[in-house]
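Notes from hallway chat w/ T.B., transcribed later so I don't forget. T.B. wanted the structure written out for a chain they're using in a teaching module, and asked if we could keep both sequence and structure tokens in one place. Agreed to drop them here.
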Amino acid sequence: MFGCQLNEFRRMERVKYVRNAAIKNHEMLKDLPESFELEDGEIVWGNWSPDVTCIFQTEEVDPKPLVVVREYSRGRVVWINSGDKKDHIAGSISKPEKEFVILLRNAIDWVSKGLKD
């Protein structure tokens, strides 16, 4: 459904999210800065399908997707890197950071507009 098999990870306390410069106008960008940091505890990535759109990514030479969207036969999905942190939920979720809450709001808005019967 998400268009990826996650099979790689790297631990890091704060993760810098950088807008994918190729994405100029997408609902997931609403009210978010060009870059921000979240206390995610790690980044995870894998082999993404070609029909996945990366909205935010790391700022490395070989950037890793941090927020991706995909439309498929049953609707729309959003994947956000934030999740677990070793044995605990990431700080960006357990103590919601402003940008994480905005990402969730934008994801709900975008996905709900693509609902299929």
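Follow-up for T.B.: The mean pLDDT is 86. Might be a good example for the class.
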